[in-house]
Design goal:
By secondary structure, this protein is mainly α. 72% of the residues lie in helices and 0% in strands. The chain has 7 helices and no strands. α3 runs antiparallel to α4, α3 packs antiparallel against α6 and α4 runs parallel beside α6. The chain is globular. The N and C termini lie far apart (50 Å).
Amino acid sequence: MARTDPFGRGRLRRLFGLDRSGAKPGQTRSGEPLRPWTVPNLIGYVRLAALPLFLYLALESGDGRSAPAAIVFWLIAAGDYLDGFLARLTGQYSRLGTLLDPLVDRLTILSGAVVCWYFELLPRWALALLALREVAMLLLAQYGLRNGVDVEVNWPGRISVFPIMGGIFCALVFAGWVPAALLIVGLALAILATVLYARRGLRAVRRARGLQAKPHSR
């Protein structure tokens, strides 16, 4: 069986995102063409376009608990997994997808946090920390891009998305301790991930600057 077959030996784990040990796809690296018209990117565009609809439905609900708003939020959140799955299945990786997917994730979480803050569906201190973390990640990504370094996703960051989005979704559906507990667990993982992102990113930037300075020192 050809090595490019996604259903070959050991490839089901990579297809479902359980094995991230392989090399980063070349199409996603800095300097590569954006390739905006891929199936995974189309899902990203739909997710992005659905955020205003979610905010409208949730903020007009009266108490923040609206079945239509919760369903739209769930679909946007589920799209985070679907676009990655389809990229691995079809091989349609792109530089734009690498930049778009985390941006939509940040905006999805911030949109959910806005609704939960407005209606006090979750602890506001946790929502404030969450918003600060998401803004910090946007700034880290921008800093990395300016210096030619991508923020590599780590496992704490990857795992944190589920309890954070799950907590927000549950808060949109019902009251109780479960939504807050999910959010706090996800927030702890996200903060750990941010520290690791910052350390690794700063090392990569220093290394890149060192390589750029070497030719001039000769």
